[in-house]
Amino acid sequence: MNAPGWVWLAVLAAGSAGSVLRYAVVSLTPSDRAHPPSPSWPTGVLLANTVASFVVGLVAGMPASSTGRLILTVGLGGGLSTLSTLAVDTVALWHHGRRGAALANVALTVVLGLAAAVLGARLGRVVGVA
Prior knowledge:
By secondary structure, the protein is mainly α. The chain is 78% helix and 0% strand. The chain has one domain (5-129).
């Protein structure tokens, strides 16, 4: 991509903000990590991924420059969301015999993420017209 240096820095800053926000959500949510010996429900990761889907949907629904979309979706949304932690938490649940919870984790993440993106896009269109 042939973007000016300030765009790269803006994506970096937005990504950093998203990552710090994800860390805060995961750290402050009870039963937030699926670590042995008894993995718990990864509520914080589910919440972070759902909020990220809403943010990206919101931006997609609003009239914005391609640069603004890039900064907010790739930067903020990308920093806030985490597929890798979803995968690790799901595998931990599965390996500890919580197969139903593992499958529910994936299903809920997909369903809530899609619903949040749709809601965000609809709200973005309303806000963008006002």
